Amino acid sequence: MNSRKYSHWRQRRRAAWIEANRPSNHPDPEAERLIEFAVVWAPFGGAAEEDILVNFGMTTRRFIERLWQVIPESNCVQDEIRRLASAYPHHRRHRRPGG
Questions:
Q1: What's the domain of life for this entry (predicted)?
Q2: What is the DSSP letter of 94?
Q3: Angle at CA 46, nearest 5°, toward 35 and 25?
Q4: CB 87 within 8 A of CB 45
Q5: What is the spatial distance between Cα 1 and Cα 4, in angstroms, rounded to a whole number?
Q6: Cα–Cα distance, 26 to 43 (Å, whole number)
């Protein structure tokens, strides 16, 4: 193996090790994937409807509902939650008075 191939192999191996050993945001792999996706797109104002549909097979509204269902059980820090709230506003359903 020449030095260039070896260097490339070491970089890939190190990246794989880092990925395997990084702390997760959620114990559920599907919820983890959802949070990671939301975090990646948060600086851009959130993911596009098409990207959400392709990656998760759900509408933007359902994606946001699901995101806010899994956040309370996650290991996300407050700053990260604030960024997610800015990109994916959570509108809780309020009951009407007397209803």
A1: Bacteria
A2: P
A3: 15
A4: yes
A5: 8
A6: 21
What is the C-alpha to C-alpha distance for residues 79 and 52, in angstroms, rounded to an integer?
23
Give a yes or no: residue 92 inside a domain: no
Position 55 scores a pLDDT of 95
In a domain, residue 2? The reply is no
Residue 19 in domain: no
Which residues have CB under 8 Å from 5's CB, separation 6+? Answer: none
| Residue 52 belongs to some domain of the structure | yes
Domain extent for 30: 25-87
Query: What is the pLDDT, as a whole number, of residue 10?
Result: 77
Residue type for 17, please?
A: W
pLDDT of residue 3: 84
How far, in Å, CA of 68 to CA of 62, rounded? 10
Structural domains counted in the chain: 1
**Tokens matching residue 34:** 């959802």
